[in-house]
Amino acid sequence: MMIVARTIDEFRKLRSELPSPLGFVPTMGFLHEGHIALVHQSVDENKATVVSLFVNPTQFAPTEDLANYPRNEESDFRLLEAAGANVVFAPQAEEMYADNHETWVVLDHLTRRLEGTIRPTHFQGVATVVSQLFHIVEPQSAYFGQKDAQQVLVIDRMIRDLHYPVLLRVGETVREPDGLAMSSRNTYLSPEERLAGPVLRRSLDLAEELWLEGERDAERIRKEMTDLIEQEPLARVDYVSIADTRTLDEIHVIDRKALVSIAVRIGKTRLIDNAILPPGEPLIARRQP
Ligand code: PAF
After folding, report:
1. How far, in Å, is the centroid of ligand 1 from the Cα of 85?
2. CA proximity to 31, closest of 67, 98, 68, 83
3. pTM for this one?
4. Of 45, 78, 214, 263, whose CB neighbour count within 10 A is largest?
5. Ligand 1: which of 129, 131, 143, 168 to mutate, judged by most atoms within 8 Å of the beta carbon?
6. CATH code of the domain containing 196
7. Position 282 in a domain
8. 11 and 142: one domain?
9. What is the pLDDT of residues 135-145, one digit of tens each?
10. pLDDT tens per residue across span 33-73
11. Ligand 1: which residues within 6 Å by Cβ?
């Protein structure tokens, strides 16, 4: 039977009873098939699985959707129990961040690229909460989705820099049948906007096709992708990036592994997606902690 812990103390009491290896899936709830695929992966690879449900306030800017972020705890619990999770950790913001909280995990470079140019405080919030959660949950492996590729690279860097004994596992992006990547934010799209959603995947397919035809000029590929997205009247490009996967610096010639990533606004909703070149390459190399 799945158990829900709502305080750090409650969780720690349960933690000591859990067998190793322990897999951990951090989430902000409102779960979709992408999250559940990560839970299945953890259940397959570990003796126990912990999932956190916590809408982390520090990764939202004051202008963002914290208050309206979709929540549905009952449905989340049902899905997690069916997927085989053993413990759900669902703390309160007041406990995770006491009034006088002043300790942050800040990365110098990776967090300033891509999403960081538009959401400058986002990754400080993500890295801090994931660091807190790693200390509380003490997992052997942690599971993150490739859809948030920059988040994966940031956490990978943090694990290495701070010597966490945690193996980072990356789950493939799970998509709707028309190619739109699953995201809790897809629920914000009106029916008309939803029809425009697959333009993100189409532009990534185009990048892969061009690369497979031998195109290595990153600027040409960025331009073709931008042109394709702009043909969709409801879509507005925030960025189209082709960057080195180690530094997230933009590259001119695609002569190494590259992350193709895009952020597109459809109406008021901001969607992100990505692909790796060469197609099929993993985002990060698998290694033991
Ligand atoms: O990917 C998410 O849902 C969040 O950024 C995470 C990793 C749970 C941290 O709040």
Report:
1. 18
2. 83
3. 0.97
4. 263
5. 129
6. 3.30.1300.10
7. no
8. yes
9. 999 999 999 99
10. 999 999 999 999 999 999 999 999 999 999 999 999 999 99
11. 26-28, 56, 59, 126, 129-130, 148, 151
